[in-house]
Amino acid sequence: MKRLLLLLYIAACASTPNPQPTAAKQAPAIPPPALMPPSALPYDFQWRQRVTAHWPTGTQGFDAVLQKREGQLILVGLSPLGLPGFVFKLSEAGELQVENRTGQPLPFEPAYVVADVQRVFFPWLASPAPGFTGDQSGERAGTAVHEHFENGQLRERQLTRETAAGREHIVIQYNTTEAATDAPARADLKNQLLGYELVIETLEQTRL
User: What is the CATH number of the domain that holds 36?
Assistant: First the structure.
């Protein structure tokens, strides 16, 4: 099963069913990585985001809301009318609840989607000293992590893990326009093994 965040969002947010790209049917089976508890991110927030997804046969854009509140991580995929197409809720105990309001089956496991959210926005290694410029590496939950900082801002994260289908290598690049914000203005994720890219723009963000 191909762990493409973009395809799950397309299925959830489209007003009419869209056929899956041929590449998705040929994808290797990869188990999702272990999910972190929501408390791994130490503050509550709500972010309104715009996601543009690229895969070999097309591009799709959609809106989403990501929230952490009262011990839950909540991801809402929005329909073209701004209504929830699906809702994923991850509890502190690791239970993932799924509400599907699309009227059609979701083609991929929600755990894959939440895993990419955590890969982009959750802390994976200890925060360096303020103003740090340089690199740091480590390992978490069976994943090798390498991060590059400039003036205390995370600019790139690389995540690598071994799977039955081969080595999954993910590169995430960050564009932070304001040092005081929690989420980067833009994050670009590339999954080389599965052949997809995500551009995630955070349009609004609020601490709760």
Answer: 2.50.20
